[in-house]
Amino acid sequence: MRVKLCLEKLEMVVRLLKDQSEMERLQSYAAVVTLVELVDSNVFSGKYQHEVFEEYKGTLLDSCQVMCGLMPAEDGKTDDDYFNGALQAIKEVRGRYCVECSF
């Protein structure tokens, strides 16, 4: 499994969350978790630096959990804040791993 492809799919799913109903968001969250696990298994296998992915994985999952109604939002934060946080986490991981994007 290529990390680049998983990150592209993660970004696609996160972008779709914004306009989905609550039920659709829950289904999309299952896809997010699956894709994160695929990236994590490639990273953990020693092919890539595990610390880099771990640094952003929590932000990505927490943001998606709030958008899906699985966690309460922090005071003053909106869905857009969490949406942007999740996308930023994906971009940071891609920026660190996908310099040449050959994997």
As a percent range, the share of strand residues is: under 5%
Number of helical segments?
4
Sheet of most strands:
none
Determine the structural class based on helices, strands and strand pairing: mainly alpha
CA-CA gap between termini: 8 Å
Mean pLDDT: 86
Poorly predicted runs are none
Instruction: Give the % helix.
Output: over 70%
Cα-based radius of gyration, to the nearest Å: 13 Å
What is the succession of H and E elements? HHHH
Q: Rough shape?
A: globular
Oligomer: single chain
Q: What is the number of beta strands? A: 0
Tell me about this structure.
With 103 residues, the chain is mainly alpha-helical. The protein is 76% helix and 0% strand. It has helices at residues 3-17, 22-47, 50-67, 79-97. α1 (3-17) runs antiparallel to α2 (22-47), α1 (3-17) runs antiparallel to α4 and α3 packs antiparallel against α4.
